[in-house]
Amino acid sequence: MPVLTATPLAGNDRADPLIVLPSLGGSHEDWRAAAQRLGARWRVFAVDLPGHGASPVATEPFTVVDLAQAVLDIVDLLDVDDFGVVGTSFGGAVAQELALAEPEGLVFTGVVCSAPRMGDPESWRERAATVRRNGTGTLVSTLVERWFSPGFATAHPTVVGRVLAGVAATDDESYALCCEALGAWDATERIGGLRVPVVAVRGEHDPVATPEAMRPLLAAKGVVERIIPGVRHQAAVEAPDLVARALLAPRA
After folding, report:
1. In 184-236, which ranges are E strands?
2. What average pLDDT does range 25-43 have in this prediction?
3. Which residue, among 88, 21, 106, 75, has the nearest Cα to 231 in the 3D structure?
4. Per-residue pLDDT averaged across 152-178, rounded?
5. Interatomic CA distance for residues 119 and 209, integer angstroms
6. pLDDT at 252 over 80
7. Which residue in 20, 168, 191, 22 sits closest to 90, CA to CA?
8. Residues 39, 104: contact at Cβ < 8 Å?
9. How far is the C-alpha of 171 from the C-alpha of 108, rounded, in Å?
10. Cβ pair 67, 49 in contact under 8 A
11. Helices 121-134 and 172-183, axial angle in degrees (round to 10)
């Protein structure tokens, strides 16, 4: 079972905790700006994926379900009655698994730029092999266009540079194991059985979590879609205030 690390980002000790999870290759820093607004309602903790950010490296295979349980282990340590969870991309896969599991105390779920199936198994196996062979640094050049809208990197070079440096700093084997876990994960047939409310946040120009990819989630009962205009896959980095506002908005 992987061990994950939670980093407190915002909020006060009297508020219910909100667990936020970044994307594959991301870290808790990707949620820091959005957390400042989310902290008005929640005590925000960012939980890094294995070998990412503050979390220990992984050496054994794991599943998305294992990661969901690791998040629940963190919640247990917080010793609270109610909590929420929000995830971007891979983190959104974990959030969907938690929503499907309906653990006691889960009162809010947000899925950001994620879908019930992310890509196909073969492409994830190929990426895992590439990272084991050449390292995560070789991925950086391909991510800017997929993750950020045109002009964002030019307007915010420090932000983009920090995100890409985080990708390159991610442990190679942990990243590869994450790829394999995501390639093996497919909640398409189960997601229609959701029985808890979910806020699904979509980037208007996201080439990964497209409307087609997200359709099974968006069609599930109790799911509310919110669209962030002008952004791509890293919506919480590109438009942290808009993403936080979408997550905090009343459902009606």
Report:
1. 198-203, 223-228
2. 97
3. 88
4. 96
5. 9
6. no
7. 22
8. no
9. 31
10. yes
11. 170
Which tokens is 159 given? 């932000």
CA gap 80, 15 in Å, rounded: 10
CA atoms within 13 A on the CB side of 114: 30
The pair phi, psi for residue 148, each rounded to 5°, is: -130, 145
Q: What's the pTM?
A: 0.97
Query: pLDDT tens digits for 62-86?
Result: 999 999 999 999 999 999 999 999 9
Count CB-CB contacts under 10 A for residue 86: 28
DSSP 55: S
**Which distant-in-sequence residues (6+ apart) come within 8 Å of 102 by Cβ?**
195, 196
What domains appear along the chain, each with residue ranges and CATH number?
Answer: 6-248 (3.40.50.1820)
Residue 226 host element (H or E): strand 223-228
